[in-house]
Amino acid sequence: MKNKFEKQENGSMLGTTIQQVRKAKGITQEDLGKRVGLPKSSISKIEKGLTHISFEDAALLMDAMGEKISIQVMGMKEPDEKRVERVRFVTIGVTWYAHNKKMTFADAYRYLLIYKGIQFMEDNYAYEQTLPRQTLLDDLDKVCNRNREKLKKAV
């Protein structure tokens, strides 16, 4: 049921949004594909809703076009000041991770996004923000390693 819902609803909604932004910025499907390492045909399928796309993947595509994507659940909007604190914490966490791993910020962000480190920091913000830097970095390594192993087994 979940896959069917995501394919029909999220896939077409996210694909349409990506297509609109791409066209508004004057970016070709081929150029967008080069920016994220996908062939033009994959971008076309995503935009048409023929290929499942996660919110994380959509965020990577939007990031490649210099845009951000956000999801708002009705009635669940966080106050702006809390949201700013959470974004600041995640940004600092990515910066620390990039520095620790000798990566660029963009590479660290993509890695943490793919392997759910960003989601972990957002979900556990209240607790993780109270921890020392090294503890946060250790927690991010554990989360990313666990999710990377899950993805390997799934493939």
Describe the structure.
With 155 residues, the protein is mostly helical. Helices cover 74% and strands 0% of the residues. It has nine helices and no strands. Helix 2 (29-36) crosses helix 3 and helix 5 crosses helix 9. The longest helix is centred in the N-terminal third of the chain and has 23 residues, at 2-24.
List the main descriptive attributes of the protein structure presented here.
about 160 residues; mainly alpha; globular
* Gyration radius over CA: 17 Å
Q: What ranges have pLDDT less than 50 throughout 5 or more consecutive residues?
A: 1-11
Strand content: under 5%
Main sheet attributes: strand count, strand direction, barrel closure: none
Helicity level, as a percent range? over 70%
What is the global morphology? globular
What order do the helices and strands follow? HHHHHHHHH
Number of strands: 0
- Please identify the structural class as seen in this structure: mainly alpha
Figure out the total of helices: 9
Q: What is the terminal separation in angstroms?
A: 21 Å
Give the overall pLDDT as a whole number: 82
